[in-house]
């Protein structure tokens, strides 16, 4: 079962964010608090959205996403920031169901893109996404400013 996240899901989402970061060898980068995530997802104009995957009443995975905008297409899209299914529940269709829900939202709302990033070493995830029909946008490089370089540029 896939459903929108509720405020009661915030501790579970934070826990899974930490699990995902550990898997991606970046646990030291996680700073999000339950309060921050609650505000992000449940304020009057949410900055992001989340959906939960459940099996027999147990949360087994989630996706967190936000809206993007394409100047070329002139419409919104969805950026899937996180997709995570707990290891013991992988292979049960939960990941596909979560991505399918985002695709359904895109189709229903007229959004023309569903995008995300995957680490180049994460072959199981790459195979999963390619099986869905996703295409690697390898002609684009992603860049990021954080921490001191961001502060320095800001002046």
UniProtKB/TrEMBL annotation:
EC main group: transferase
Domain N-acetyltransferase positions: 1-155
Lineage: superkingdom: Bacteria
UniProt cross-references to PROSITE patterns, sorted A to Z: GNAT (PS51186)
An MF annotation (GO) of this entry: acyltransferase activity
Enzyme nomenclature, EC number: 2.3.-.-
Keyword terms of this UniProt record: Acyltransferase, Transferase
Protein name from the UniProt record: GNAT family N-acetyltransferase
UniProt organism field: Nonomuraea salmonea
Lineage: Bacteria, Bacillati, Actinomycetota, Actinomycetes, Streptosporangiales
